[in-house]
Amino acid sequence: MLAGFYTAASGILVQQRNLNEIGNNLTNSQTVGYRSRRLVQSTFEHDFLTRYENGEYTNIGEGDPVSLVDIVETNFNENSLEDTTWPYDMALVGEGFFNILGEERQYLTRNGNFNIDAEGYLVLDGVGRVMGESGELYIGGPDFTVTNDGYVFDENNRYVDKLLITQPAENAPIYKFDNGMYVTENAEVLQNSTVYQKTLERSNVDMNLEYTKLIEAQRNFQACATALTTVDNMNAKAATLSSITG
């Protein structure tokens, strides 16, 4: 009976995590440059009772079908662009991320909804200053120009810097933070990125898909909760019969 508890309880935990990820996607559907995330589910047998050798999986034991979260994948597919009149807005086309210098770390993001701080630096509000290849990007005011190659010129058409656009190196781990921020331990500078000023990239959240996944996850959660209640009732009856026969 304990196996039934573990199976149902693990299913509840996985579906709760799934609901959290779907809810986060829905919450950030209007966040500029946001990338949706999807939970990938696995089982105890696959992760702990099989062995991968010579290109094949072989069974090395038996176990209860306990559910667990294998990974949470991020969908980095691009979405459409939206023209704006805000001179600080920028969007990337193709690979790459803007670099933002926060208080504790340097972030990668596709969110180009920038602003200017009191000292004249380009910033992402609430996160930090936008980085150029030579350091924090000073623009002075709204009359600046960014070319499609990422070069920044001031109001007098004098060269200022080039936007720092990077991409995580192959197989480098990527850590997700709030509001579409990412951190990696190994990033490579991209020289051929395309940048559009007065433009924003929409999030790639598919609302129809997310609502469908939400309903599916809610039903799975309810099914696991019902199964857990059933197992509990069966255990209670078994205990009662045991006390009577004993």
Describe the protein's architecture and organization.
The longest helix is centred in the C-terminal third of the chain and has 39 residues, at 207-245. This protein folds into two domains: 2-75 and 205-245, no CATH class; 81-201, no CATH class. β13 and β14 form a beta hairpin. 25% of the residues are buried. Strands 7, 8, 9, 10, 11, 12, 16 and 19 form an eight-stranded antiparallel sheet that branches. The mean pLDDT is 84. It is built from three helices and 21 strands. It starts with a helix and ends with a helix. It is of the alpha+beta class. 28% of the residues lie in helices and 33% in strands.
Q: H/E element string?
A: HEHEEEEEEEEEEEEEEEEEEEEH
Number of strands: 21
Percentage of residues assigned to helices: 25-40%
Largest sheet: 8 strands, antiparallel
Tally of individual domains: 2
Low-confidence stretches: none
- Per DSSP, the total helix count is 3
Radius of gyration, CA atoms, in whole angstroms: 25 Å
Structural class computed from helices and strand pairing = alpha+beta
Quaternary structure: single chain
User: What best-fitting shape do the alpha-carbon axes yield?
Assistant: elongated
**Integer average pLDDT:** 84
Portion in strands = 25-35%
Span of the ends, CA to CA = 19 Å
